[in-house]
Amino acid sequence: MTSSIRPLFWPGLFLFFFTHNFLAAQNLIKNPGFEVYYTCPDDGGQLMGYVKYWKSYFSTTDYFNLCGYYPPFVAQSAMPRTGSGMAGARWLIMTDPIPLREYLHGELIDPLRPNNDYYLEFYVHLSNYSILIDQYSAHFSQNPITDIPPDGILYLEPHVQNQNGILPAREWVRISGCFTAAGEERYITLGNFVSNEETDTLNPVPIPGIPIQRHYALIDDVALYSLSSLIPSDTAILEGESLAFNTSLPLSYRLNGEALLGGQFAPDSAGLYAIEVALEPCGAIGSFQVEVYTCEALGKDYEPFLSDTSVCLEEGWQLVFPRTDTYNYRINGQLATENVFAPADTGYYEILVELPGCIVLDTIRILALDCTISDEAPDCFFIPSAFSPNGDGRNDYFRLYGPCQVQEVEARIFGRWGGLLFESTDPGFRWDGTAGGKAVSNGLYVYAIRLVFVGEDKRVYEREEKGAVVLLR
Prior knowledge:
Elements: E1 54-55, E2 62-65, H1 72-75, E3 85-93, E4 104-107, E5 117-126, E6 132-133, E7 137-141, E8 160-161, E9 173-180, E10 187-191, E11 201-202, E12 214-226, E13 235-238, E14 243-244, E15 251-255, E16 258-259, E17 264-265, E18 271-279, E19 283-293, H2 295-302, E20 309-312, E21 319-320, E22 328-331, E23 334-335, E24 340-341, E25 347-354, E26 360-374, E27 386-387, E28 405-414, E29 420-424, E30 434-435, E31 438-439, E32 443-454, E33 459-471
Parallel strand pairs: 13-19, 20-26, 26-33, 27-33
Antiparallel strand pairs: 1-4, 2-3, 3-12, 4-10, 5-9, 5-12, 6-11, 7-8, 7-10, 14-17, 15-16, 15-18, 18-19, 21-24, 22-23, 22-25, 25-26, 28-29, 28-32, 30-31, 32-33
């Protein structure tokens, strides 16, 4: 037979809570810091054959790594900005009839999506004995650019270009910008894409006897991000908590026009906040919302989805907890380590729902049962043979007594001529000795009761009782 025992239905919660430190967006450049190599560079220092995912198809771009080849002229100029590796390339030479430029070609993790906006940054540092220039550019293409340019210069349209004029000589400088992708670009090329005449130059303080006629750049930490990935997702926090946003990139955050210093958001009251995001030098790139909740409000939002219940083991019942990375669940006092609760044995299970740093939200009590119906029902019910509905508070109703938990009931009471006076499917039914709103007379009345109940052994039983009860006022 089918009982009224129902598994707990727990729909998804409205709120999404996170751990309050926003994950960094994915850098789409492979080996962005030149740290991954096939073998540590030897005395030659050439990039080709050593560093992974970067090429110099028709030039002799260099690879420097503190693990091996790191010549004095490089060491005197700069250490890698991060890590132990970096590249070096000649981006201008004034003395040869042919410019002899060097370019750096890299691969992307994924192709760029059509009409999507992206942010690129890379860092350059002038080496010693180099002329200063203004031309630092990046170009994206669907295919690698392998053809040797006839005059040594790749005249490419820059997607990102230095906008700050001639750069200083003795520090790492960020080149950055935003652009819209045509779609399916898979490769990046870094270099100087204009002629010598179009390149602005500046000679540093001249060294006697050493004419400076070239520019040699050190390159490190190339990064490419989709703009949408730099905007935090909508989230919610508890009152008294704070959020820290990404500040490793030139991102800034504003609330009601006021800058959030250090990328920190510490609201002083509950409510819904809209935070604007800007990226230098690209301007505003979007916004997101933060909902600040009190513990009490969170409990009210959670409460409708919780209820005590009974379950049948043989039905393979299980409960999947929502968002176990945020909420804690304790089963009979033990912290739940998985997001699935499947009772292994009959008995009561108390599930405590809590949010770290907040009040206990609710407690669910689940009774796990052996729902196999047995004919050998235990005697755990008492059906009275008489009752007195006179309003004195003693034995005023005809009802069931006993410790066992009723799951289903069908109760009927008949008069002396067989007419139906009362019926109920309520496990807690009570007959007050009336029919049709009027009190019936004293006398003998017949009952028929069918029960499905849980015994003290946590098994489910079915039982039918027929008999008579005396009504005396």
